[in-house]
Every structure is written in C-alpha cells, then in structure tokens.
Amino acid sequence: EEILSYRALCFLKATGQNILTSLLHPTKETIKATAYTVISIYLVTNIVEGMTASKRQKLDATSEWGRYADKPAARGQALSLLMMQLTPYAILPSLLDKFSKKKKDDLSEEEYKSTRAHKLRRRGGEMFADGLLKLGPLYVKIGQILSCRENLFPDEWITAMERLQDRVPAKSGKEAWDLLYDAAPGGKAGFHKLFRDFDDVPLAAASLGQVHRATLRSSGERVAIKLQRSRMRDIYDKDLALMKKIAKIVDKFGKAGQVGGIEQSWVSIFNDAESIMYREIDYRDEADNAIRFANDFGIGLGGVEIESTAKGVDGNVLPSAAEWLRTPYTYGDLSSEKFLVMEYVPSIKANNNEALDKAGVTLEDREYLAECLARAYLRQFCANKFFSTDPHAGNLGIEVFENERAPRLVFYDFGQACSLADDQAGGILDVIESIVDSDAKKSVSAFSRMGVLKDSADLEMVQAKCQQNYDEGKLKVKKRKSRKSSRYNTKEKVLAKESEKAELDARIDSAKQAKNTTDTSEGVNDLEVMASFTLQSEYAFVARALSQM
C-alpha cells in the first residue's frame, strides 16, 4: 500500500505538469488528454483514500465516522461498494435453497449449518453489520432497528446485526480515561471529587456512547457512567442535514413516496425524529426522560416501590410497577451533556437465551416477562402518555432473583422518547378496546379521535374494511386471565391455546362460507382504504417501538 501510494504521488506530480503545459498550449488533443488525466487523478485519489481508510478501519471500525460526515460523497461511495459486495450474498443462498435436493425446512439445525447457503448468509450478515458500523452512528441505529425485524432478513443477518445493539467498538484504557475527563463536569478534578474509582474497560458500547462502572465517594454505591463518543454533535449536524434533503425529495414524489398508501409528510416525520435524536446526544435530556419514566411507573432507587406520578383514565393514581419492572435510578444532579450517572443494575440481555437457561428462567417465566413488556407499553401509550421509542434487546434486561420471586423486566436507555397528546393516547386505548370487542364502528371512532383519518375520508368504506377483517379473523385479541394468579398453569395454558385455535379456525371457516354466498365487503380495496388515512409523526415512533418489541 505504501509503494502504491508513493507511485500515485509521482503520477499526480507528472500529470500536473502535463496539465499545466496543455493549458498554456491548448489543442483538441491536449484538452482531451487533460480530461482523461483529471478523471484518472480522481479515480486514483479515491482508490488510495479508500485503501488508507480501510487500513484504519481494521484497527478501529469507527475511525471514519468524522470523515464520512465531512465528506458525504466518500460515504456514498462506501455505501455503494457495500451494496455491490452484498448482492451475491443476498442472491446465491436463495438460489442454492431453490435448487437443493433437500429443502431448508426439511433439514435439522446442524444439517443446515453445514450447508453452503448458511455459510453464505452468515458471511453476508457479518459483512452487512460491519458495513453499517463503519458508515457512522445513524447507520448503527438503522442496524439496531433492523435487528429487531425478523420478518425482513434471514436469521444469520439478524444475529450479525444484534451486536450493533451493545457491542460497538469502544475506547478502553488511556483512551477511556481521556474520554471520561473530557465529558465529566469539572474535568479530571471534578470527577475525582465525586467518584472513588473507575473501570476503564466498558461494560457495553453502542452508537453514541459507552458505559463504565464507578463508585460514588459519598455513599460507596456502585454506579454506571455513560460517556458520549467524541464529535457526536458535529456528525449529527452534517448527517441529519443530508437526510433532511432526502426527506424533502421523497415528499416531492407525492403518492410514490407514501408507505402502504397512507398519506404522510416525511419532512414532518423527520423534523420530529431530528428533535428526538438531538435530545439523545444531550444526556441531560436522557436523564430527564429516565427520571420521568421511573416516576411514572413508581420505581425508586434500588428498584423499590414509590408512589407513581401517572394517572389512569379514571383519574386515579396508578399503582407502582416495581414488582414486575425496574429501571436504573438516575442521578440528574451529577449528569451533564456528555456524562450520565445511573444506578448500576446488572441483568441478563433479554434475547440471551443461553444465559437465561443457566439462570433458571423457564418458558413460563419468559411468557410472563413478555406480558410484562406488553403491559409496560400499554401503560406508556395510554396512561403515562410518554414512551421509550427504542426497546431493542440491547435496552431490555431480565433481573433474576435467588429466591422464588419471579424475574423482573429492566428498561435501560431513554435517549429516545416521545410524548403523546391526550386524544392520541385515548385513541390508542379506544382502538385496542374496539379490537377486543371486534367493533368496526368503534374502530372508526377511535381512528377519528387519534387524528389519523383525513377530513375527506370515506368512513363507510373504512368501517366495512374493519368489519371484513374482524369477520375473517385477521384482527382478533383473546381476553385472558392475569398470569399473576397462575404463572405455571401449563396444562390449562395448552388447553386454552387449543381452544383459541379451534375457535379462530371456526371463525375463518364461517367467514369464508359467508363470503361464498354474500360478500358484503367485496370491492373494498386496501389501497383505497389506506388513502383515507394520514400518519402523524408520533405514530411513526409508536410503530417503531412496537416493531422492535
């Protein structure tokens, strides 16, 4: 690489002299030669720059984040190259599956892992995750979101992208101390005045920062300190400015830029996303979000129960959720823009099945925890009117106890959070109730309350489509007893599931028979129905949160 770089410099020097000569004595041939030379210089410069960047990225995958923010064209080239490299890894496995004598579904897990298709998918997933990591923090965020969308990518790609949730390369040793002193209020002296020690090997690291253990001098309590990476605001300024231009371009395409036929302004959605993302790089805002979340759920220091600040639809204060939910206590008075101090709360990552098995977390426990997660978000949407928009597995943990107590869900990271207006929150609750009751008319009223129907919406058509979905069993919620009273009723659970399946099959068969005789919803086109809806930016974040759960 050094020899190539030297030869390139010699080439640039010689061609520069030739260009100067041709400009002094221009002819058709010299102008043509100059054009070829300029193109050659551009290509050689980019090749050398790319090779040098690749060498730096082998040592630190995040090394080019600042350069890509300064030179969007360089990132565009890197992104284009990544897409070209990924193409064969996306196409070949599908072809191998198609022409294989044994289909993927017929193979055992061990047999599939030995196939060429699996190896290609695994390599493609690693390449994709590495590429997103190298492109910058916003692309890491995209990878975190995609890692929760199991319906979009092969399992091998999902597994590869999961490391973007909390295993991004981090600074340690002297570099971690430098980052600490730069971020801590009062610098080096200010830190040592308040803290007794600091573990310079991070516990976890994501797109914006890394987390370290430390000890408070005043109480001796173990805390977790989140430190922000360098140049984050500068990188966000440049990356978000570019994305805003893209949003404006998409909006100009009108219906072609809409998703699923729903009218939305991408600029409006982006503006709200931009506001949330800028708050994410100010840890004082994250501290405020974390404190509000804990108060809404009635959770204090040590995970103890305190009085909740949230009220239900009846106006009464909601009970504390400390029995089934925990979040680290946040020391807002010790935190600053790049320095966040929290209670140290160890847990098992929510999707680490091997560790959960070793800790004795049973299938029934996991179903209970899944119910707790759904319960937590229902309360956030409909009562607290404030929710975390980023519930990927890196931000969710499971706290396991040595006694017979049920495991507890742990929420981390409130850098991205969103508030809902009263009608938005009430509308979401109305929609849920209408689905439970299979009430199409009530669904339309709920949509109106949420503000997602256009003034010109055809309400009869929307109601007819809702009724069709209910009749065909496409929308159905089964009311269940709380698991609190019978967490381990396995036999009853199996019988209930069989009963639910039989009931659902009967509903679908009935709907099909009805359709064969008299189809009242015939002609209700999905796209026509969706054209009656408009998407407010807050619901984009609701959808994002639900898609990652």
Automatic annotation (TrEMBL):
It comes from the Eukaryota. CDD domains: ABC1_ADCK3-like. Belongs to the protein kinase superfamily. ADCK protein kinase family. Residues 163-443 form the ABC1 atypical kinase-like domain. This is ABC1 atypical kinase-like domain-containing protein. It comes from Skeletonema marinoi. PANTHER family: CHAPERONE-ACTIVITY OF BC1 COMPLEX CABC1 -RELATED (PTHR10566), PROTEIN ACTIVITY OF BC1 COMPLEX KINASE 7, CHLOROPLASTIC (PTHR10566:SF113).
